[in-house]
Each structure stands twice: as structure tokens, then as C-alpha cells.
Design a protein that fits this description.
This protein has 138 residues and is mainly α. The chain contains four helices and no strands. The longest helix is centred in the first third of the chain and has 28 residues. 12% of the residues are buried.
């Protein structure tokens, strides 16, 4: 966990330096000024790397040292529970169908997008509320 956090901190700094250099160079040599797509995209890439680094750093503080941080660790030490997944859930299927219809709607006809949104919202809500024990439990 700590090694992954360090990697993302380094990537974030690298992308930030590259974004500043790219913005400076395109500002000097482009007749219209700073290039409007690449510079914000690289800043967003640096921001995403910093966000992942922050999450990994905070997670590493809360948890013990894992096998990935131990130089003498074996592969089998990293085994165990990786998360809680529902084995017979239909929600990912409905969400994928909705996403596919949304993309098809943009390409083929906007009326298809409405059906895609309906399927995607239904699938996403059922996926999020799948393990709910409150008002919307299954």
C-alpha cells in the first residue's frame, strides 16, 4: 500500500511538471495561446494521480503493513478476502445494457438514449442498494 502511494505521488508530480511545461510551450508557440484540450487534460491527470495517492496514503495509515510493503513476503501471504461481491446479481447486467444503449443512442439516435438512461438508472440503483438493510432492502 505504501509503495503504491509513493508511485502515485511521483506520478502526480511528474504529470504536474509535464502539464506546466506543455502549457508554457504551447502558449509560446501557438498563435491562439495555450492549447485548450491537452493542458486541462494533463492537469486533470495530475489531479487524479494526487487523489489516488491521497486515498492510498490514508488507507496505509489505517491498516497494518501489508505483504506488498514487505521485501521478504511471499505471494500467498496476500491471499484472503478481497471484497464483498454478490454472486448472482443482475444489477451489473442492467447497468451494462443501459450504458450500451446510451452510447448507441449518441451514435444512432437520441431517442435510444432515453431507454438507456432508464436501464442504467435502474441497474445502478439496484446495484448500490443491493445490500441495503434499510427502507429499500430486497
Amino acid at each position: 500500500m505504501r509503495a503504491s502511494a509513493k508511485i502515485f505521488w511521483i506520478l502526480g508530480v511528474f504529470f504536474l511538471i509535464v502539464a506546466v511545461a506543455y502549457g508554457f510551450l504551447t502558449g509560446m508557440f501557438q498563435p491562439m495561446g495555450v492549447e485548450p484540450v491537452g493542458f486541462p487534460a494533463m492537469l486533470a491527470l495530475a489531479g487524479l494521480a494526487f487523489m489516488v495517492a491521497m486515498v492510498l496514503s490514508l488507507t496505509a495509515r489505517k491498516n497494518d503493513v501489508g505483504p506488498s510493503d514487505d521485501l521478504n513476503a511471499e505471494v500467498e501471504e496476500h491471499g484472503g478476502v478481497q471484497g464483498s461481491f454478490s454472486p448472482y446479481s443482475w444489477a451489473p447486467l442492467w447497468t451494462a445494457i443501459g450504458a450500451g444503449l446510451c452510447f448507441l443512442g449518441v451514435a444512432a439516435g437520441w431517442w435510444i438514449l432515453a431507454f438507456g438512461v432508464i436501464f442504467a438508472v435502474y441497474g445502478l440503483l439496484s446495484w448500490v442498494l443491493e445490500f441495503s438493510v434499510g427502507q429499500h432492502q430486497h
